[in-house]
Amino acid sequence: MLKNMLFAATALVALASGAAAQAADLKELRIGILGGENEADRLRNYACLSDHLKKEFGFEKVSLFPAADYDGVIQGLLGGTLDVASLGASGYAAVSLKDPKAVTPILTTQQKDGSTGYYSIGLALKSSGIKSIKDAKGKKLGYADPDSTSGYLIPLTQIPKTTGEPNEKFFASTQFNGGHENNLLAAYDGKVDVAVDDSSGIGDFKDGFTSGTFHKVVAKGSIDPNKLIEVWRSPLIPNGPVVVRNGLGQEWTKKLADFYLALPKTDAKCFNAIEGGDFTGYVPVKHEFYSAIIDARKAAIGG
User: Fold this and answer.
1) Domains along the chain with CATH numbers
2) C-alpha dihedral sign at 12, 13, 18, 23
3) Model pTM?
4) What is the DSSP letter of 211?
C-alpha cells in the first residue's frame, strides 16, 4: 500500500512539474474577445495588444478569437481553449458558477472619476415620445446578449423596481439583438422602442458619455446622439474583469497582470482601443468584487 501511495505521489509531482514546464514554455497565447460588436473593429482594436504581447514575452503566436456572442468566450475559458479574456461581470459570474477554479480575475478598469463601476442605461429615440421607462409600457424592449450584465441581467432585475412589473408583463415584447452595438442600432432604427446598453454614465451625452458601447458607436459616427434620449439608468454595476485561465499557473497570471497594469502607460492608445473609452487605467480586482452579481445571476437566470 505504501508503495502505491509513493507511486501516486510521484505521479502527481511529475504531472505538476509537467504542467509548470508547459506553462513556462508557453508558445501561444489565446485571447477571447466578447461578441456582439463589429468583428473587423474588434480585431483591429486588439491588433496592438497582440503585437505588445509578442514583443514582451516572445510568444510565437498571439491568437485573437472574436466570438460571435458572449457565450463563445465563456465556453472557451471553461473548456481551456482560451487563456485570457475581458469579461462583463455577468459573464464572469457564469464562468464562476460553472467552474469556480476555471479562471482568476486579475484587473478591472477605472473611470476618470475614480470609480470601478458603470451603468446600464435605457436609450430610446426622441421621436418615440418616451421620456422615462414608465412611458414604455406596452412597447418593445431590446436586450443585448443573455450573458451580458448591463444588456440583460441588470435590466431584467432592476427595471421592474421602477415599473412595478416583471419585464415580460410590462413590455409588449422583449428580444435579444445580438450584442450591444446591434441592440443600440435596433433602437436607433426603430426595431425596438428601448435598448439597454453599457455606459460610464459620466461626461457628455453628445459624446455617448466617456465609455461603453454608446460611446464607441457615437465615436464611429454610426449614430447621431441628438436623436436619442436616456430613459432609464441602473444602480452602479462593477466593471468586468480581465481574467486568466488558471491552467497557465500563478507565474503567468502575475506576468500578465503586470503587463496589463502597465499598458495604459506604455501605450495609452492601445489601452483605449481595447477598452473602448476614456478610462484612467486598470486596478487589481478579486473574486469578492463580483459576489453580488454572482448571487443576482444565480437567482435570476441560474448558471
Assistant:
1) 28-109+240-301 (3.40.190.10), 117-237 (3.40.190.10)
2) positive
3) 0.86
4) B
The string of DSSP letters for 124-184 reads EEGGGT--SGGGGTTSEEEE--TT-IIIIIHHHHHHHHHHSS-HHHHSSEEEE-SSHHHHH
Is the pLDDT at 142 greater than 70? The verdict is: yes
- Would you put residue 114 in left (φ > 0), alpha (ψ -120 to 50) or beta? left
DSSP string, 10-45: HHHHHHHHHHHHHHHT--EEEEEE-SSS-HHHHHHH
pLDDT tier for residue 24 given thresholds of 50, 70 and 90: low
Query: Computed from CA positions of residues 287, 290, 296, 302, in that sequence, does the dihedral angle turn out positive or negative?
Result: negative
| Helices 39-57, 250-266: crossing angle, 10 deg rounding | 110
pLDDT of residue 9: 38
Unique residue bearing C-alpha cell 514546464: 21
Per the document, the length of the chain is 303
- Chain centroid offset of residue 299 CA: 20
- In whole angstroms, give the CA distance from residue 160 to residue 126: 23
| Percent over 70 (pLDDT), the chain | 91
- β-strands 241-245, 84-86 pairing: antiparallel
